[in-house]
Design brief:
This protein is an all-alpha fold. It is built from 8 helices and no strands. It has 2 domains: about 1-50, no CATH class; about 55-165.
């Protein structure tokens, strides 16, 4: 009976490994700790790279068209450097932004809240870390809940899609 109890955990173990990194067994010792620390460091390093400059100011975005253009260029250049996001993913998100802007005023904020959730999912699912600044901006726009902010966010997203072509 001891043999069957030893075999059962082994039969479950490969399934877990198939979902994770290829070095699952080696990761239990020292390499796992190194990989986790490196993962945190990598993410922290990547985030540190664009948490500073790419922070998009909603007030400047609303008032300065050149600022909007510069931010769109910045997001696209970070996408090209860091991510493998597809044009169709961006277009799908842009279409959702357009629909949210056209929603009746009473539903607009709710549409943008859901859009933020959709954007967060897309960023996480496809590792589009370059779009983190857009997610932060979308939170600001949603909290402000003004038509002008929603329209400028749409304009920014349109510019990003255009420059990414």
């Amino acid at each position: 009976m001891a043999e069957t109890t030893q075999q059962e955990p082994r039969s479950q173990e490969p399934r877990r490994e198939g979902r994770g990194a290829p070095g699952g067994r080696e990761g239990r010792g020292g390499p796992h700790g190194d990989r986790r620390e490196g993962g945190r460091g990598d993410r922290g390093g990547d985030r540190g790279r664009f948490e500073g400059p790419p922070e998009i100011d909603i007030e400047k975005l609303i008032s300065d068209p050149l600022y909007l253009d510069n931010q769109a260029h910045g997001v696209v250049s970070r996408m090209r450097d860091m991510d493998s996001g597809t044009k169709s993913q961006l277009r799908r998100l842009y279409n959702a932004v357009r629909r949210a802007v056209r929603a009746p005023e009473s539903e607009r904020q709710q549409q943008f809240v859901m859009l933020r959730a959709r954007l967060a999912y897309t960023i996480a699912r496809h590792s589009l870390r370059s779009l983190d600044s857009l997610e932060k901006l979308l939170l600001q726009v949603t909290r402000k809940n003004e038509a002008r902010g929603y329209e400028r966010f749409r304009d920014l997203f349109e510019a990003i899609v255009a420059y990414n072509e």
